Amino acid sequence: MNLNQTIVAPTTNISTQAISLIRISGDESFNIINSLLKIKIKEEKNVWVRKMFDGDEIVDEVVITSFISPASFTGENVVEIACHGGILNTQRIINLIIKSGARMANKGEFSQRAFLNNKIDLIQAEGINDLIFAKNELALKIGVNNMSGAHNQSIINLKGNLLDIISRIQVSIDYPDYDDVEGSSIEDLTKSLSAINDEVKSLLKRSKMAIKNTNGIKTAIVGKTNVGKSSLLNALLNEDKAIVTDIHGTTRDIVTGEINLENISLNLIDTAGIRKTNDIVEGLGIEKSLKMIDDAELVLFVIDYNAIDDEENKKIFEKLENKNHILVFNKSELISNKEKNKIKSSQSNFVFTSAINNDVDNLINKIETMHMNEELIKNDSLILINLEQISFVEQIMQRIEKSLDAIISGMPIDIINVDLHEAWNLLNQLIGEQYDEEIIDNIFKKYCLGK
Known about the structure:
By secondary structure, the protein is of the alpha/beta class. 47% of the residues lie in helices and 16% in strands. It has helices spanning 29-34, 87-99, 109-116, 122-132, 137-148, 153-174, 186-215, 229-237, 280-295, 311-319, 337-346, 361-371, 374-377, 387-408, 413-431, 437-444, and strands at residues 7-10, 19-25, 46-54, 57-67, 78-84, 103-104, 217-223, 255-260, 265-270, 298-303, 325-329, 350-352. The strands form two sheets. Strands 3-4-5-2-1-6 form a six-stranded mixed beta sheet. Strands 8-9-7-10-11-12 form a six-stranded mixed beta sheet, with helices on both faces. Strand 8 and strand 9 form a beta hairpin. Helix 4 (122-132) runs antiparallel to helix 5, helix 6 packs antiparallel against helix 7 and helix 6 packs antiparallel against helix 15 (413-431). The relative contact order is 0.12.
């Protein structure tokens, strides 16, 4: 990437729409836009209405918003053009800008320049992408908070507290004759480091809970044949994704779909009905179903009340003993009130549904209740929902816990500081104060064009 080049990209989708937005960033932004105008704009922060030209031919009448370095998103001179929408019109204007000296931006290059120009840190950069690709309200909230940097001060505070401990230990190493340095006793160091460790563990716990809800919980729909598994999948997705018939064994392989609830997403998997069969293909599907129970994070066990004690159901119950699951008594319109009362007295984790009638609200509410944690909804602390970031936090915690164990076991103080220095470096990498260029390139390649 050449940061000296001026770049351009559409920041809205190129399609037939009322308005398209095009962004230019770099030293030549004003020269390039002025080469397409009869009435030039000044190099200042302002909003302008101008006619754009290709030579003497008018192209469009546009609204131009200009920003001056460093007071822009990228930290460079930026010109944003709001032109009339339409595929041909938008592409024509972009081509004119490229002819005038800009090049097409790479995916995420505007955000990458903002990071490299110290306008945002790496947590904010990842927050932008989390916001754009948010699947539910929880992911949206976390993305907004991280993009704005609302809670990033906690990492700055962690760095400061850890540096203070490192400094105390270093003084003890450099000046061994001074054994009364404030806060450098084993008790003081253990107390300070334990407080940091508790904060890191809390961040890791929140983030691991959140990433499941935001990325999607692997949810298997299992049960015997003809109990309504495929109908349940279709009702949850609100579309006819799976084939539904009265014929046993219709579903022979897994069918998948995704549903985004308010604060949780589910990756749904409809499995082949479990029964005894001599059909080789259906048998392979049933094997997959049984394995899917082991792999799933949540199992929706769809069951016919009248066949609850069947051999196949008993086998499924055994596999669910230590699994997160919900008993789904489908075709509830066929279950009498007396039978429902009997279920209520003998079962605890169950719902009634009628998938064929799209009556699945009780199931949705049950899933949300099981997986939504008030600590995530109402918490104003930093939460990370990126696997690489969570990996950094895990490594930081490992280094700190290793140092704590070493202090308590009486290891030499200089050895302890090695792990603390590594934890410090990992904190710097987490927010991007230290980075590898190739890793940074890969991070921003995940972005969409124009961001």
